[in-house]
């Protein structure tokens, strides 16, 4: 019998203190998982993947590996979610498995870049596609320049959408989950419909023939500064593996945020059952849709193309206009209305995605504040029993990232850091089984210890691959995480300092 106690739940609230309301059902939790995953990435990132791997077979393999990694991650996280069903999710798991500093570094990076940077990027994607319908909101419509910083109509619309969703989520969990359910069901049905229509009406015999002819013929297309082709590098052996790892930056970004449901564990009914189930079911459904969407892409369009070609077939997946592969594929189904149809679909998709990100992210800062590691005011609930101040702080920082225009670079920087945290979190399963063998585990990681170990090895291998082949992204990303170390100790020192 071990003397190690199970992870301690949060202390009971003082008399009259507000508590989270457990109003999230299994369906609601799945809507958080699926809604946070499906944004604009699935309609865009396949262009860059196609340029990096150069064939239909390897394009699909990249998405397949990403799907396997995601599902194994969801299966593994389920054990931790059932074991520690408290607000804060991944932050709590790292704190319990390792120490408060490790948890803080995750929370710090989440606030600084991961969650807020994603919110900013998704908000701007919403604005970009609104600009297809209402040209005034185009990114090139610069309204004002302040100290060399250009502020466009698209940036202002992105901020307005973030402010609106923040305000709605401050009205209570019921409002937030209703919005999430509505938009997630709508975009899931729309994506499913697009895939089916692609197979039925968009199939292009010439594209299929070309893609099958070079199905496993890998190449890496390097772009010139002007957007043309600088060189095409044939790949073989280990370079194919390296290219697959580098290409997964896009697919991992498009498949990210499935774990955000763990942040709201304090508001889920029967969390020990429903959170693990929502992780596996939600991530599994989206992963299948993503893979089928890419099968549809290679059925409709050739992988190889030429920049500046006269039509979408000539440009192929590699050089779809502005990387909008989804729009290019839709044009083969719907013709001229495709741009409008896809713009509406992506607007719905990104708006719903940001609702889930905004709703869930604030709970991490709330949990950190309860541990004395974030602004104290963010550790309180408003009269609707949601962390209102944390929502506002998140909104302000995400809006500043929108104005900076650097959110995209920041997200590239942290893909490496996110992989490192994923490795640490799944490794935490092994650590906690030793540290706390008698803790209640209503769900145990499937295939333990082999499946979690495979996840650790694959995620670590991808991280090393990025470190070698994309150092301009990985080194700054690591620097962002490490910058949190002095911040942690300063925060601890300030917390211990006697009041005047």
Could you explain how this protein is built, in words?
Helices cover 66% and strands 4% of the residues. With 500 residues, the chain is mostly helical. The radius of gyration is 22 Å and the shape is globular. It starts with 25 loop residues before the first helix and ends with a helix.
Short structural summary:
The protein is mostly helical.
Give the name of the CATH architecture: Up-down Bundle
The total strand number stands at 4
Name of the CATH first level: Mainly Alpha
Which residues form runs of ≥5 with pLDDT under 50? 1-7
Distance between the termini: 47 Å
Oligomeric state of this protein: single chain
SSE order: HHHHHEEHHHEEHHHHHHHHHH
Task: Kindly report the CATH topology.
Answer: Amino acid/polyamine transporter I
- Rg result: 22 Å
CATH superfamily: Amino acid/polyamine transporter I
Proportion of residues in β-strands: under 5%
Largest sheet: 2 strands, antiparallel
| Tally of discrete structural domains | 1
Mean pLDDT: 89
Structural class category: mainly alpha
Strands side by side in the biggest sheet: 1-2
Helix coverage percent:
55-70%
* Principal-axes shape call: globular
**Discrete helix count:** 18
